[in-house]
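Example S7 (structure tokens).
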């Protein structure tokens, strides 16, 4: 009887498989986001103005960074399908072309990042905060080409079930980043005291070191022999790059729709002063850290769904997709409870300013509230991408965040006099956070319906 009870069910088997694939990516994602957390947390103990500058610079930078990450994610789906179909000989070519794509995308992103600093002169910031925020972006942008190429190799290695490298390299990168932050932010060991700009220098250099480490790992590890991409030189193949851009750009725009909404919130809150923008950015920063768990499940889902579809098994792909969504929801329930209970401790870990702590603890209640919808939307959209469908999630995210979240946040946060249903007094950060909760909920509902329709249609075909 005990043997029967202990027999693994299909759900338990799939949960175990997705967890084995996802947990190293989770550690790696947490370490990568931990760099941003360290930047904000360490500058928060320098001064409120330095924290505001880094917060604003990081808001603009993260919009570009996440857009690049999404644009480069096409390789995840393509390689996963090739693995499922046992077309191993095609993978080296795909990786080489994805790297060429990464070079181009990275250079364009670097240019956009530097031009974006012009916005700091037009949003009511004090001159010193605007100048420091711009310097932060200028310094950190040196790492963007390396980051784009790293994400190409990231997608390749995770899609062939080799996730340990992304974990080890990211953890080492975080340790390097924190140590150099300690040197440059506070001027320890005789180094110049650069404040927030020191964080940017550390992160930019770290991105190049992480790319070098990934190239070395692929060169040495036996697991890459069958699909090793660097056997010979290959120039850019524009039709292949164009096909990956058509698949990847909608993912990039999808990520842009969400992260730009969060970034725009920080910029619009800036007019209410340092306390409001700092508290909001801390809450956003911690929320992005928690978000790495369902995001890692989502990246794993792209691989699992892609493998099943590559094998021609649409029924299993549907099953895999919904198990992944359920795992994300289970985590969301836990994270929501923990954020609500420990919101004051979280705020104190980031800053010693009592006013910022109080407002941050309040905003973290909104972060706890949107955990379920946030986890649902990232899991469902990732599963849909496993089907090589990327335009529909893009359209839904644009509608949810820029059709619902931002208009509602603008009305509640700023209380414009021309709008009849504006509150009597601007709700500032809290009003924008209510809009974000609404946007995430709309995205979750629409993407869940989309995945249900798509997976059922393919399974019946």
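Recovered sequence:
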């Amino acid at each position: 009887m005990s043997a029967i009870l202990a027999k693994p069910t299909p759900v338990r088997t799939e949960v175990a498989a997705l967890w084995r694939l996802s947990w190293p990516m989770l550690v790696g994602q947490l370490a990568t986001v931990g760099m941003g957390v360290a930047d904000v947390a360490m500058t928060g103990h320098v001064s409120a103005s330095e924290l505001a500058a880094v917060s604003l610079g990081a808001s603009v930078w993260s919009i570009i960074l996440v857009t690049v990450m999404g644009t480069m994610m096409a390789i995840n789906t393509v390689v996963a399908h090739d693995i499922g179909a046992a077309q191993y000989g095609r993978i080296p070519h795909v990786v080489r072309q994805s790297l060429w794509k990464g070079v181009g995308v990275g250079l364009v992103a670097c240019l956009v990042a530097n031009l974006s600093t012009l916005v700091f002169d037009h949003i009511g910031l004090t001159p010193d905060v605007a100048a420091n925020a711009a310097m932060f972006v200028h310094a950190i942008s040196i790492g963007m080409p390396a980051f784009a190429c790293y994400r190409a190799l990231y997608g390749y290695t995770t899609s062939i079930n080799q996730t340990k490298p992304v974990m080890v390299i990211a953890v080492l990168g975080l340790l390097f980043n924190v140590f150099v932050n300690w040197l440059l932010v506070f001027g320890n060991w005789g180094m110049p005291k650069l404040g927030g700009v020191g964080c940017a220098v550390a992160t930019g250099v770290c991105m190049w070191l992480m790319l070098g480490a990934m190239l070395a790992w692929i060169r040495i590890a036996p697991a890459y022999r069958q699909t090793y991409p660097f056997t010979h030189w290959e120039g850019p193949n524009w039709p292949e790059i164009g096909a990956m851009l058509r698949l990847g750009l909608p993912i990039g725009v999808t990520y842009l729709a969400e992260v730009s909404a969060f970034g725009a919130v920080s910029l619009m809150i800036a007019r209410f002063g340092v306390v409001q923008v700092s508290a909001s950015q801390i809450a956003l920063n911690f929320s992005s850290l928690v978000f790495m768990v369902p995001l890692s499940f989502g990246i794993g889902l792209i691989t699992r769904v892609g493998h099943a579809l590559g094998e021609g098994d649409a029924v299993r792909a549907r099953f895999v997709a919904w198990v992944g969504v359920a795992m994300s929801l289970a985590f969301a329930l836990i994270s929501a409870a923990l954020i609500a209970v420990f919101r004051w401790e979280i705020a104190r870990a980031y800053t010693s300013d009592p006013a910022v702590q109080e407002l941050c603890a309040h905003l973290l209640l909104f972060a706890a509230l949107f955990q379920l919808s946030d986890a649902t939307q990232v899991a469902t959209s990732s599963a849909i991408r496993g089907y090589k469908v990327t335009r529909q999630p893009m359209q839904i995210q644009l509608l949810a965040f820029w059709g619902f979240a931002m208009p509602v946040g603008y009305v509640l946060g700023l209380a414009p006099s021309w709008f009849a249903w504006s509150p009597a007094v601007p709700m500032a950060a809290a009003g924008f956070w209510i809009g974000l909760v609404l946007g995430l909920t709309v995205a979750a509902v629409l993407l869940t319906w989309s995945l249900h329709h798509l997976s059922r249609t393919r399974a019946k075909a």
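Notes on this example. Residues 1-6 have pLDDT under 50 and may be disordered.
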